[in-house]
Design goal:
The protein is of the alpha/beta class. The protein is built from 15 helices and 15 strands. The strands form five sheets. A seven-stranded mixed beta sheet has the order 4-13-10-3-9-7-8.
């Protein structure tokens, strides 16, 4: 009888604790979801319950250390609640960028984020957790002999089972996102950059290379490459534009593909620990102005490559692809200028959020050309037609974005070339698979386009001829590093000219 009473008290305590966690923390990760159908609502309810069940497992084991738990847990609760406020109100992503900003930002800057609403939320959450623990001060909340202990083991295992079934299913949700992205922040970069010590030079001047890195755009969904839908109504009218339809990469997600594209790392190089050279480091040595303008939060795997630019701008840094308030890519053009008043050589890189899922978030309503579109983030409740319609609308948006950029570049007095390449493709239902970061050929054939100005055409007639002759060739993403150094006429640095699309 006594044991039964104790177990009931334990159950009551942990149910109450999880109610507080749900209200002040975990629900924040779900409130912005477009659930769509009742099926979508049901699936995310199950997801929410499984997340809490896994949390119960970890919390119960932690609570076995009774005194430490009662001191540390309220503090951890308040810290995590302070994060969840911004997820609730701004749909911010608690990613590596957010962790970095918190750990590296000056105190006076950090104070600027405080508001009276934030203070009230924090005070309410603090009072709630301390009052809850005060009411249960004398309660024995956990025991190795309790049935709840064995249930907690199943809860812990649930975390690993779900994560194994679907990568980052829990890791991108509060409170797990704080822990795992903090671990990513402190983790050593998987790519080490070598220093360029040679006296690199170039005799070129007034050259402007504009590199646009797309996201999840597959080659065969471009009208320019024979797709049966006109996803490129504007680019199809542009002169001096070449589309390469047979580009290959083995890397199907950004963290692997971007550092390979922007360094001399070959797709054939399988070694995990090796030094590579950043494209920007070489160009810096040749007195190029190098600038990065991105609409994606930087990942640890390629952060150092981006930092090798002489200037770096990340727009909307704390809204990642997970956020439903993420800035649209057209905002990138507000940070891009021509600088016609100097003859310096320049490379400008624009990194898009592109066609990353959730597709509807990447476009404004006036780009919903193909209908019906998706109304939920849950795949199980969606028709293939709506998914492909929403995806193709992102390609129409890309068409508009690149056309706007080209129109801007036409006003430049520089010898200008624009190279667009997506980091990887996207799987759209082939063999029952969707999105990317998985082994399928649909994710390994990214879109690639090259546009050049009339000034560039006059200055590089031979290179243009070679470029046109290669448009039907099968090439790998290795081409980029060597092609840009080749067209920049880099001297005193060894690169592979046979990999260049201009050679």
């Amino acid at each position: 009888m006594e044991k039964s009473k104790t177990w009931k008290q334990e159950i009551k305590f942990h149910l109450g604790l999880h109610l507080l966690i749900a209200v002040f923390i975990t629900i924040a990760s779900y409130v912005h979801f477009p659930f769509g159908s009742s099926k979508g609502n049901f699936v995310y309810l199950v997801h929410f319950l499984l997340l809490h069940f896994s949390l119960f497992g970890f919390i119960y084991i932690f609570s076995l250390f009774n005194k430490i738990f009662k001191i540390l847990f309220p503090i951890l609760f308040i810290v995590v609640s302070s994060f969840s406020y911004w997820v609730y109100t701004q749909d911010l992503t608690i990613g590596v960028g957010m962790i970095q900003a918190i750990l590296e930002t000056n105190t006076d800057i950090a104070i600027d984020v405080f508001s009276y609403q934030f203070i009230i939320f924090l005070l309410v959450s603090s009072f709630s957790i301390f009052y809850f623990f005060k009411c249960n001060k004398k309660l024995r909340i956990s025991s190795l002999t309790s049935p709840l202990f064995f249930i907690s083991i199943i809860g812990v295992l649930t975390f690993f089972v779900v994560e194994n079934y679907k990568y980052d299913a829990f890791k991108n949700r509060l409170p797990y996102s704080i822990f795992f992205n903090s671990m990513k922040y402190f983790k050593e970069s998987s790519i080490k950059l070598r220093e360029v010590t040679a006296k690199v030079s170039t005799k070129e001047e007034n050259l402007h290379v504009v590199l646009v890195i797309g996201e999840s755009v597959r080659s065969d969904h471009l009208f320019l490459n024979g797709y049966n839908r006109n996803t490129n109504p504007l680019l199809a009218q542009q002169k001096n534009l070449i589309s390469f339809k047979e580009v290959f990469t083995p890397y199907t997600f950004t963290a692997q593909s971007v550092p390979q594209i922007l360094t001399d790392k070959s797709i054939d190089n399988k070694q995990k620990k090796q030094e590579f050279t950043s494209l920007y480091s070489v160009l810096n040595k040749a007195s190029f102005k190098t600038e990065w303008i991105g609409n994606q939060s930087l990942e640890r795997s390629y952060k150092d490559v981006i930092y090798s630019n002489t200037s770096k701008t990340i727009i909307d840094e704390f809204h990642s692809f997970l956020s439903f308030k993420k800035e649209k890519d057209l905002a990138l053009l507000n940070y891009f200028s021509l600088h016609n008043n100097t003859l310096e050589n320049r490379i400008s890189t624009l990194h898009m959020i592109g066609s990353h899922w959730y597709y509807n978030n990447r476009v404004t309503s006036n780009f919903e050309y193909f209908k019906p579109i998706t109304n939920s983030k849950y795949f199980g409740s969606l028709e293939k037609e709506t998914l492909i319609n929403s995806y193709d609308n992102t390609i129409v948006y890309l068409d508009f974005f690149l056309n706007e950029l080209i129109q801007k570049l036409k006003k430049s007095t520089k010898k200008t070339i624009l190279i667009y390449i997506s980091d990887h493709g996207e799987t759209l239902g082939e063999d029952g698979k969707w999105l990317h970061a998985q082994e399928h050929n649909a994710s390994k054939n990214p879109a690639m386009l090259v546009w050049f100005s009339n000034n560039f055409k006059k200055s590089y007639p031979l290179e243009i001829q070679k470029l046109i002759s290669k448009k039907q060739d099968s090439i790998t993403t290795d081409f980029l590093f060597h092609s840009i150094l080749d067209i920049s006429k880099i001297e005193n640095y060894k690169y592979l000219k046979n990999q260049s699309i201009f050679n």
